[in-house]
Design brief:
Blueprint lengths: L2 H27 L8 H21 L10 H21 L7 H26 L8 H20 L10 H21 L1
Helix pairs in contact: 1-3, 1-4, 1-6, 2-3, 2-5, 3-4, 3-6, 4-6, 5-6
Length: 182
C-alpha cells in the first residue's frame, strides 16, 4: 500500500482515537468547555503545544508529569475541534452528548476534507517531515491565530482563525500518525 493510500486510513484511525478521548472527557466533564471563548481555547492549545516542544527539547523521560507527547497532540486536535464549534455556535449553554458529538464530527470532517485536498496537492510532503516540525508549525499557527484574534478576527489577505484551527488539527494528526505508525 502506497503512503497516499494509507493516509486516509491512518488519519481515520487517529481521528477515532481523538474522538474516543473527547467522548470520555465529555462523560467526565460534560461540555463545560462551552463557557470558553475561542481565544481561551487558543491559549489552552498553546499550553499543549508549548509542553510538547519542551518535552521534545528535554526528552520525555525528564518530564515531571507522567503524560507524554501523544496525549498532548490528542488534546490539540480536540481543543481545535472545540474552538471550531465555538466559532460556529458562540459560547453558550452545554450541549447534549449527541449535539456535542455531531458538532465534533462536523468540525473534524471539515479538517479531514481540507487535509485530503492539500495532501493531494502537496504529494504527501508531510511524511518527510519531523514531528518537531509539526510542533513548530502548530506554535506558529497559534501565534498567527492570537494575532488575528487581537484584530477581532479581521485579516487583509490571510485566512481566518477557522482555517488555522483546521490546519492545527491536521498537523497534530500527522504527528500522531508518525508517532503511532512509523
Amino acid at each position: 500500500m502506497s503512503s497516499s493510500s494509507k493516509t486516509p486510513t491512518q488519519f481515520g484511525d487517529v481521528v477515532k482515537l481523538c474522538r474516543s478521548v473527547y467522548e470520555k472527557k465529555m462523560a467526565d466533564y460534560g461540555t463545560s468547555w462551552r463557557i470558553m471563548r475561542p481565544s481561551s481555547l487558543t491559549d489552552q492549545i498553546y499550553i499543549k503545544a508549548k509542553r510538547i516542544r519542551t518535552l521534545e527539547e528535554m526528552g520525555e523521560n525528564q518530564a515531571k508529569v507522567n503524560e507524554g507527547i501523544e496525549p498532548e497532540f490528542i488534546g490539540i486536535v480536540n481543543y481545535c475541534a472545540m474552538a471550531l464549534i465555538q466559532l460556529e455556535k458562540g459560547t453558550g449553554n452545554s450541549l447534549s452528548e449527541k449535539e456535542a458529538l455531531e458538532a465534533y464530527d462536523k468540525a473534524i470532517k471539515s479538517a479531514t476534507s481540507l487535509m485530503l485536498n492539500k495532501n493531494h496537492d502537496y504529494d504527501e510532503a508531510w511524511r518527510e517531515m519531523r514531528v518537531s516540525s509539526f510542533t513548530d508549525i502548530i506554535l506558529q499557527k497559534l501565534l498567527r491565530t492570537k494575532e488575528i484574534e487581537s484584530h477581532h478576527g479581521k485579516t487583509i489577505v490571510s485566512e481566518g482563525v477557522d482555517a488555522n484551527y483546521m490546519d492545527m488539527i491536521n498537523y497534530a494528526i500527522f504527528a500522531l500518525i508518525k508517532l503511532r505508525f512509523e
